[in-house]
Design a protein that fits this description.
Radius of gyration: 22 Å
Largest sheet: 6 strands, mixed
Number of helices: 7
Number of strands: 8
Structural class: alpha+beta
InterPro entries: RNaseH-like_sf, Transposase_11
GO molecular function: DNA binding; transposase activity
Strand content: 15-25%
Order of helices and strands: HEHEEEHEEEEHHHH
Protein name: Mobile element protein
Number of domains: 2
């Protein structure tokens, strides 16, 4: 909550479409905070064991959506409550059989499609951690050093992506049968180039 308030202090004119959060960020107090006026639009994933109140009954979400087949989704109509608060609610049965259950402010539609935008954040986490810069290996704990580190990593991230896009335009990355690239623009193309011992390999001259 303090983090959200700090963001608005730093960026008072920010226009936030919605806040997406995984199941670690759940609970009655958190939801009530987000529903305060002026409300902050949100898309929160809840657990399959969390109870949904409808028509005077409270049932676990996994029971309410037990009928969904893989790839099938449903948004519940009418009055729904989670942790005592009115919400919109939509669920999707994932390929592994798990349920993706998302809540949002009342009268919201397209919950699952909005929440899907969060996967880009997971990709970013991977880039900063084990699949890229491995920043956790620094074991930094000092806030000022961490701020400087993240500033440096942000520059390196943008540089890697720009380099990857440029090289992709010169030599397009092959697509696999499922339609995805055979190489990552960031990790296997951009990062590989900027971390190469041959630092002039793509026309940059270093002092």
């Amino acid at each position: 909550m303090r983090f959200i308030e700090a963001i608005f202090k730093i960026f008072p004119n920010a226009r936030i479409r919605c806040l997406c959060a995984d199941r670690e960020f759940i609970g009655q107090a958190w939801l009530r905070y987000l529903l305060l006026e002026p409300s902050l639009s949100f898309r929160l994933r809840i657990r399959a064991t969390d109870k949904i109140e409808r028509n005077g009954k409270a049932l676990p979400a996994k029971v309410v959506f037990a009928h969904l087949a893989i790839g099938e989704s449903q948004q519940l109509p009418g009055d729904c409550r989670v942790w005592g608060n009115r919400v919109s609610l939509e669920a999707l049965r994932l390929e592994d059989g798990d349920l993706l259950i998302v809540i949002a402010p009342p009268h919201t539609v397209g919950l699952v499609s909005d929440y899907a935008l969060r996967w880009g954040i997971e990709t970013l986490f991977g880039i900063f951690k084990t699949r890229g810069f491995c920043w956790e290996s620094t074991h930094f704990t000092d806030p000022e050093r961490l701020r400087q580190l993240f500033a440096l990593l942000t520059l390196a991230l943008v540089w890697s992506l720009k380099t990857g896009l440029w090289l992709h335009q010169l030599h397009p990355i092959r697509l696999k049968k499922h339609g995805r690239r055979s190489q990552s623009l960031f990790r296997l193309v951009g990062l590989k180039q900027i971390s190469s011992p041959n630092k002039a390999s793509f026309g940059l001259v270093w002092a």
